[in-house]
Each structure stands twice: as C-alpha cells, then as structure tokens.
Design brief:
Number of strands: 9
CATH topology of the largest domain: Alpha/beta knot
Structural class: alpha/beta
Strand content: 15-25%
CATH class of the largest domain: Alpha Beta
Shape: elongated
CATH architecture of the largest domain: 3-Layer(aba) Sandwich
Bound molecules: adenine
Strand order of the largest sheet: 2-1-6-5-7
Helix content: 25-40%
Order of helices and strands: EHHEEEHEHEHEHEEHH
CATH superfamily of the largest domain: SPOUT methyltransferase, trefoil knot domain
Radius of gyration: 21 Å
C-alpha cells in the first residue's frame, strides 16, 4: 500500500511512521508513506496557503488552489482508491473502516489546519471524510497518524503471529480479554490458573468468556451493533 499525505506541518507525523510496527511495515516493503508540504504547491507570495474566511469570523482557511495543485500533481502519478479528508465533522473512525481501508492500494489523506479547508476542495476531490472523535484538534495531522497506524498494522503480512490483529479489541465487536505475563504472582495477585496449565481448549474458552464479560461491563453498546 502507498499513502500520500498533504499537510502544512508534515514534521508532526514523520517520527510516528519511523518507529515500531510502522517502521517494520515499510522495511518489509508493504507500506510506503510520503508526506507532502502544502507550501510546496502554492503560487502565492511568501508561500501563503491560508486566508481569512469570506463572511468574516475567527480562524484561517486553507485556500483551494495550493490544495488542488498538490492533489492534481499526485493524481498524475497514481490512481487513488480514496481521497480522505481528516475532519471532526466526518464519520467517526472505527476498526471496521480500518479493515476496509487496509485492503486498498493507494490512499491520499488531506490534513486541514486552523479552521479547515475551502469547501470546494471537499466537493471536487474528497471521496471519504474521517473524524477520530468528537473533539477538535489543531489540525488533521495527529488524526491522520492515528488512521495510518490503525490501517498499516492490518496490511496483510505486516504483523507476525505474535502480534496478530485477529485477537485485537473490536475485531469481532468484542473487547480483547485480559492478558498476563511473568511473574505468576505479583503483589499478591495471581495469574488465572487456567492460563498456566497448557490446555488450549480451556484457555480459548476462558478468553472468549473474559472478552464477553469485559464487553458487557465496559462497552455493552458493541454487543448491540
Ligand atoms: N481535525 C481536527 N480535529 C479532528 C478530528 N477530531 N478528527 C479528524 N480530523 C480532525
């Protein structure tokens, strides 16, 4: 998979993609991420990319021409399966969306900043909009980082057996069961006996039950979806 990201502060995202599983995905050649600085696509003086909003009101808006220049330039090089705009007024991101997007080949993500982007870019180019939750960030960069991480780890081949995504929370509309490692007793608390006896069938049953109980207790809404 290849992901292009357009942003006014690409530096905000680069370190997130340079470590851990995102790094491994890129080293394995399964994922490439290219962050593009919107200022490289403006023809305005002083590399201007934003302006006051028509009608007045606080906050700057990213102008349409630099964004269109950047999008057109990238579209000349590849066909995008989705052009995604990160915005708090989009549908809320979830594991199902991550699963679907992880099977795509080329994604383009547009990060807004300040008050957002000119509406005409949304009408003309954007095919999907994503919010990562009901709160407003300073820009789409951190949200894009979240989405790329969630998608990247699902690309077939990125995770090995030990880190398999199949047992993650939300994969079956269930939260993941509790996990334990050494030591067997910690500050007087013992690891459940069933996990220690090597009976894989019993372990699976315990995990399924624990996942269900946790979901009922913490996120009953998931069970009704
Ligand atoms: N940009 C600003 N806030 C955001 C959010 N909550 N989700 C996605 N993009 C955003």
């Amino acid at each position: 998979m290849h992901i292009d990201i357009i942003s006014v502060v690409p530096e905000l995202m680069q370190s997130a993609f340079a470590h851990s599983i995102m790094k491994r995905a890129q080293e394995k050649g399964l994922l490439t991420v290219a962050c593009h600085n919107l200022r490289d696509y403006t023809t305005y003086r002083h590399a201007q990319v934003d302006d006051y909003q028509f009608g007045g009101g606080a906050g700057m808006v990213l102008m349409p021409e630099p964004l269109a220049n950047a999008i057109e330039h990238l579209k000349e090089q590849k066909t995008f399966d989705a052009i995604i705009y990160m915005t708090p007024d989009g549908p809320t991101f979830n594991q199902k969306m991550a699963n679907t997007l992880s099977l795509k080949k080329n994604l383009l993500i547009i990060c807004g900043h300040y008050k957002g982007i000119d509406e005409r870019i949304r009408s003309l180019y954007v095919t999907h909009e994503i919010s990562i939750g009901d709160y407003v960030l300073s820009g789409g960069e951190l949200a894009a980082t979240v989405v790329v991480d969630a998608i990247g780890r699902l690309i077939p081949g990125v995770l090995n057996d030990e880190t398999s995504a199949l047992t993650d929370s939300f994969q079956d509309n269930l939260l993941a069961p509790a996990v334990y490692t050494r030591p067997k007793v910690f500050q007087g608390l013992e690891v459940p006996e069933v996990l220690l006896n090597g009976d894989h069938k019993k372990i699976e049953q315990w995990r399924a039950q624990n996942a269900l109980e946790r979901t009922q207790e913490r996120r009953p809404d998931l069970l009704n979806e």
